[in-house]
């Protein structure tokens, strides 16, 4: 795609749920980016959202239809914030309108549909990425880089778990039609962390607990890798986990404080000493992926090294395997 020549990257947000509000709040913190439009299936919801993020410099266009948002000529890139059961259709709508897209995680419900979106964006020459904001977190990036540089020695074990008690009023967590799954909503974080450190596994063994409506609410998996490394990951939407992550080798151990996917600090224990590291995190943490997308658009890049499509598909393949072992199906 051609580089975006305007001094400001102009964003549209598709859907007006909680994550959209968090994203909009962080967007206001990133210089050279601004919210110019929002789309909802409800005109009233779009109008209320636009009024909340109105600034004296620019009004936010309120569209009561996703197609109208996708067609808005003032929008450079759309952040898709709908429930993940809708991601494939909503992201495709934006791509067909010629818009760059940052789509909230998980990209879709399975590898096949994720690959289809990625291929379509490539065919059209449009920027496209999954909004796995943890990948852009400066402390996560620093901890992984430190491990790859040998700070822990030969890496033998990665551990990561994430859990919380899901709000019963958050439909996407409990409604199968919206893609309800603790694995897709929560487990994707520890699995992505393991992938950042160790890459794609040779084998996966998983188990979990199912809701009466046919989706998983808790689970865990052991992943094994070439060379003998092991990752132990767990996730839940029905319990308050300790939300920690670690990378351990034959020289030392990196530990990321809870909640690890937000990455506010980490420690390296090696040689009898413990050193703490902490890079500033802007806002809730979404600002870093916003800045990355903006840099790609200005450079004319259709993919991001920080939010790579290959990484999205690799994690999705693991989640497909885990879903198969748990017996979760969306067909």
Unreliable spans are none
Beta strands, count: 14
CATH superfamily caption of the largest domain: Dihydrodipicolinate Reductase, domain 2
Judged by helices, strands and strand pairing, the structural class is alpha/beta
Shape: globular
Distance between the termini: 35 Å
Average of the residue pLDDT scores: 96
Task: Provide a quick synopsis of the model.
By secondary structure, the chain is of the alpha/beta class. 34% of the residues lie in helices and 25% in strands. The strands form 2 sheets. It has an 8-stranded mixed β-sheet, covered by helices on one side. It has a 6-stranded parallel β-sheet with strand order 3-2-1-4-5-6, with helices on both faces.
Write the layout of secondary structure elements.
Layout: E1 9-14, H1 18-27, E2 33-39, H2 43-52, E3 61-63, H3 66-71, E4 77-80, H4 87-96, E5 100-104, H5 111-124, E6 128-131, H6 138-148, E7 155-163, H7 171-174, H8 182-198, E8 203-210, E9 216-224, E10 230-236, E11 245-249, E12 252-256, E13 266-270, E14 273-277, H9 287-299, H10 309-326
Parallel strand pairs: 1-2, 1-4, 2-3, 4-5, 5-6, 7-10
Antiparallel strand pairs: 7-11, 8-9, 9-10, 11-12, 12-13, 13-14
Helix pairs in contact: 4-5, 5-10, 8-10
Family: Belongs to the Gfo/Idh/MocA family.
Keywords: Oxidoreductase
Protein name: Gfo/Idh/MocA family oxidoreductase
What labels would you give this structure?
single chain, 331 residues, alpha/beta, Rossmann fold, Dihydrodipicolinate Reductase, domain 2, 2 domains, 6-stranded parallel sheet, 10 helices, 14 strands, 25% strand, oxidoreductase activity
